[in-house]
Amino acid sequence: MSKLDEKLETIYNDVLKRNPGETEFHQAVLEVLESLGPVVVKNPQYLERKIIERICEPERQIIFRVPWQDDKGNVHINRGFRVEFNSSLGPYKGGLRFHPSVYLGIIKFLGFEQIFKNSLTGMPIGGGKGGSDFDPKGKSDDEVMRFCQSFMTELYRHIGEHTDVPAGDIGVGGREIGYMFGQYKRITNRWEAGVLTGKGLKWGGSLVRPDATGYGATFFINEALKVRKDSFDGKTCLVSGSGNVAIYTIEKIHQLGGKCIACSDSNGVIVDEKGLDVELIKQLKEVERRRIQDYQTYHKHAKYIASGNIWDIPCQVAMPSATQNEINGKDAMTLVKNGCLAVGEGANMPTTPEGVKVFLDAKIAYGPGKAANAGGVATSALEMQQNAQRDSWTFEDTEVKLEHIMQNIHKLCYETSEEYGAPGNYVLGANIAGFVKVADAMVAHGLV
Ligand code: NDP
Hints:
The chain has 18 helices and twelve strands.
């Protein structure tokens, strides 16, 4: 553990004691507390009013049984979660993750990060997260539908456009949101567009929402490169994962003049030195739901490395866009040694604490997830705005709004890092700027 202020250390030890075994949650809390030492010196009322202890304790945690039947009639039981973490700035907002690794500690780390991320967007949204240990991989559409219907049959009573607004995350895309929206509508007898985001375009969705997290992360790093009088132009880039965030990160990097030469999934890495064919990846992953290995069937010159480590490939910009803790200390050292100038986290907490330290010590442009990938939730908030106005904006207008939001987040994080004496340390900037706004709202709301 790095040095924590004595009072913050007591708070952290209490978090460890109260939440045993939730290692990802501990990691996310520690990373924020490490930035807050100078903030509590400046604002002693945060300690007096136990704001940090309160932020670390979710307002509400819901855990429920999700029974469903597969195509052969066999019964399966999964576990569903919704953690409503903090509603100081608006209704709880954050995605649902369907992945076999999901347990309470993962949902709490994601929900905790979401509080500060949503604060950074400047939009009226609180923090929450949910999901299930259900694995949609290899399931038929009907099986996924039955699972989603069962999941929503419990979740519906906890959510609503002014209460809690879920969206997608790993394993939850347009198909799953569609099935859940259908079941919500059926149970409540309400066509309530604002209850879920990431909806289909024909029934209340927003243009740019599918693209938003990847585009946003690329915009953030573009701003960080500008500070260094640099740009994506001609840069060799790596993007891990090949899901929603990865695909649109690759697309935007190419639009900004970079060349993305590799992406991955949990089985291996595909390398195309000519630059990845993003339209083919969209077809394989979004339409046909196939594996990234199949890229080679269409581009024989590409290389597939089974169980490969993408971070061993030399690059100038790395955009981790798969999952938590996918870059360890050794990977970070390899990246820096190979000349990496910038790392933009499309994924949530993809770098271990040892890896973060390597990036900060090397003073590369390092955009942590809670700042760099905030474009997804910000565009969800734009979807909510359009739903409230019963309006739909053009792709161009929505993308311009997203780019401005990312520029503002970058500016806020940069200026905060300067104010606290560590210019360019976006970890410090994001944690402090995200925290202060929530803390001030909590002080204003009294002891609730
Ligand atoms: P998808 O399900 O669309 O894609 C996930 C990708 O990451 C897949 O290629 C998957 O490979 C890979 N992956 C997932 N888990 C693992 C693992 N344990 N090991 C190796 N690879 C893995 O999810 P998203 O693209 O939506 O999400 C990716 C990341 O971005 C997550 O960290 C998510 O929290 C974060 N994020 C997403 C947002 C969004 O709007 N969707 C918003 C902000 C952050 P495989 O198919 O083999 O599992």
